[in-house]
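Format is sequence with structure; example below:
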Amino acid sequence: MDSEEPDRPKIRLAKVIALRGISSRRGAEDLIREGRVAVNSLVVTKVATLVDPMVDKIRVDGQGLPAEPKKAYYICYKPRGVLTAMDTGDKNRPSVMIMIENLDIRGGVEPVGRLEFNAEGALILTNDGELANKLSHPSAQVPRRYIAKCYRTPGPRALKALEKGVVTPDGNFLPVLARIIDQTDGENAWIEVTVVQPGAQLVPRMLAALGHPVSKLRRESYATISIRGLERGGVRPLTAQEVTRLRDIADGIQPKKAGKAWRGVGFAKAKPKPTRMKRAPRVKTAAKKPESRKPASRKPEARNPAKKK
C-alpha cells in the first residue's frame, strides 16, 4: 500500500496481523484470502501484500488492530520430531506451537532461525522482528554450539580439517571449533562443534564429508543462550542480561564481550591521590667539629736495680 515515508521498510500484511496477536501467520493468511482484511478502506486478498503498520490503517472484520504488544523473549528446548514452524497444519508433524500453548504468551512470538526436524535443542522465540532479522542474517555470525554423536572417533587430522574449513562437492564450510567430549564402546564418539555459518544440516553434512556420519544432534546454545536447566519441551523467558547479550551479538559485538558493561575512551575517572602531610622545614645548624683526642701518655716503668746485679 502507499506510504507517506518511502524509506521506511514494509513488511507482509500477514506478519503484522500475527504480531498483533490476532492469529498465527498461517491463520492471518487465511483471513486475507477470505477477504476479511482491509487496508486503508480497501479489501485485500493477496497474501504477499506489503504494508507500513505505522502509516497504513489495517482492519480485520471491520475492527482495527490492537496496540503493539510488549516485546517478549523466550528460549525453548525443542524435542526431536518437532518442526520449528509455528503452524504446520499437519497433526502428524507438530510444531513448536505445542510448547507455548499453555503459556500466557501474546504478541505472536516466532522462532529465530531454524532447527532440523530430527535435531533437538535451543531455539529462541520472540516477537521482536528487528532483532530476529539481525540474528538470522549471515553477517551476524551468531555462534551456535552443537553436540553430535558420530560414527567412529575423529582423529587429530579430522579435527584440524574442521578448524581450517572443509571444502567438499556438497559445499564449502567455514572453520569451526571442535573437540571430542566422550567415546563409547561401540566405536562412536560425542563431539562438540561451534559454528557461525548458517545453513541447513550444516554439522551433519560437515562430519559426513569427513567420514563420520551423525546419528544424534543437539544444539546446546544459540548466541550463548543455553538450554541448561530445561527439560525437553520446556520454555522459559530470557533474563534482561540475556536479551542484552542477544542484541549485542546481533550488532556485531564479540560473544565474550556481549552483555557486559563497557567503557569507552574518556569515561574512566582518575583515582584521587592520597593527601600527604607536609613536613616542617629543617633548620640548618652549624656543624660541630669533632674533638681531637690525644693519646694517653704512658709513664716509664721504674727499673729495679736488683735485677741487673
